[in-house]
């Protein structure tokens, strides 16, 4: 499974998402690759992804995709991430 | 990079900012003052929000001000600004902001280990409020290094 974390710069906030998503997925026993990328590269990087993690600000720019687009409000809240990732990959 | 112990100049506590731009500028100035970035990096941090919106407010009360790695970054680093009066970034869920973290990395992979350390500190939900209340740099360092949250 491939999961892509999207933000404006592809570092920083998407990096936080990547780190915490990896922690949650490990706890859930899900094997997945999590990649941090910037919004300009989303079409290429997320072409084969099952899930895109991002903020509301980027949903429109991500546009049409086969992946589940999951909006995260609190990037540090692993409970929120656990619930949303469980719904997305379960 | 892992989280370096922050220089005094990288920590600005109980500062005053009129709006989100001023708050981001304080975090940028602290990166410049501690030798991590040039002033152009601060402008790049502001442009990121102007282009994409207030998504850098990644948790209640906390903004992660940053831009892409580039020639504006002299060395990896972090800055911390806390605001005496919280400011609105226009975020739907996480306003108002009282803690602004400035993040600069010379390369994307350097960013990633630093953000892992940030995640360690702030996955404790009490850490942001504790940092917002900190009145001296030693307390702020302790919270950022995950040594203390209250």
Polypeptide structure, described:
Chain A has 90 residues and is an alpha/beta fold. Chain A is 40% helix and 22% strand. Chain A has a single domain, classed as Response regulator (Rossmann fold), CATH 3.40.50.2300. In chain A, strands 2-1-3-4 form a 4-stranded parallel beta sheet, covered by helices on one side. In chain A, helix 3 links the parallel strand 3 and strand 4 (68-71). Chain B has 150 residues and is α/β, with parallel strands linked by helices. The interface between A and B is medium-sized, with 26 and 32 residues. Chain B: Its main location: cytoplasm. Chain B: This is Ascorbate-specific PTS system EIIA component.
CATH class of chain B, named: Alpha Beta
Share of helical residues of chain A: 40-55%
Q: Number of helix segments of chain A?
A: 4
Morphology of chain A: globular
Shape of chain B: globular
Q: What proportion of the residues of chain B is helical, as a percent range?
A: 25-40%
Radius of gyration of chain B: 14 Å
End-to-end span of chain A in angstroms?
12 Å
The overall average pLDDT of chain B, rounded, is: 92
H and E order of chain B: EHHEEEHHH
Distance between the termini of chain B: 26 Å
Largest interface: A-B, 26 and 32 residues
Taking the sheet with the most strands of chain A, its summary is: 4 strands, parallel
What structural category arises from helix and sheet content of chain A? Answer: alpha/beta
